[in-house]
Amino acid sequence: MTTIVQQNNPADVLQPPLILVLAVNKECSMSHNEEKKICGIVMPISTLDGCSEGHWSDVLEIITEAIEESGFEGNLVSNADDVGIIQKRIIQNLYENPIVVCDVSGKNPNVMFELGMRLAFDKPTIIIKDDKTSYSFDTSPIEHIEYPRDLRFSRIVDFKSKLSEKIKATFEKSTTDTSYTTFLKHFGEFKVAKIDKKEVSGQEFILDELKNIRMGMRRLERNNQFGRDPRYRDEFEHFTSDEDFDYCMGEASNLEIKKAIDIISGHPAVMSVDVMELEPDHKHLRAKLNDIKAKGELQMLMRKISPKGQRNRHVATPKNG
Prior knowledge:
By secondary structure, the protein is α/β, with parallel strands linked by helices.
């Protein structure tokens, strides 16, 4: 009698565990990427209190490194992947970012305003400042992490370590402690501000996007017509809006726009400033004035910040004669 013994191919035996290991590793990798959360950054970016733009760029790099060490991804609240009104992006990020680091050094008015909004949302917020900036009365009860304005290396290393640990501890407490509050609820019971969201169907979203694309194409066609036809050049050059002051920033970056807002909003004649994005890479800075005579002065100021010859889309070709 012949006995047949069937042997398994070693490759068949090893293959399932190998596939299982690869699947587990891939799942772990995906899980790690999903856990990478955004930490918003609010801070000055233009010359302020004797500190240059380069100084604030160095500070931004230091803050970003500390945020990354804590397991988050740093991002200025004015940054966004989509196009639209910059103020809308800022408010949306101030509301949605799981945690925000705010540098109040130099007490920039826009920074203080954005900090106030974040505190009104009562969401995790960490305040930092340099050692030359005094405390503000309203926010002094909140702990401030201090760093040297001269950015001395040894003290910056210590600051980055403290900030990184503070980010991790604050976020963990906000997600595990139901009674957690950054600021607002220490003073009583308040209804925390929320941003309403509307849920739409996929069909509605697609139709809305098509509508936006169609409007964008019409703007491009109109702009091309203005550029070709001399009859429209005067109208194109003297583009106006409902605001007292309107300046074309062309394809200026978000950092350049924020710098312009910081400078313009500090002018005594300016009541409010906003930015309208007419189309991708075409932005207008607009302002309400309490003295229309300041318009010329603001125009000169803006030409220094963003030279009109380089930026403005509405400059007509000089006419002969």
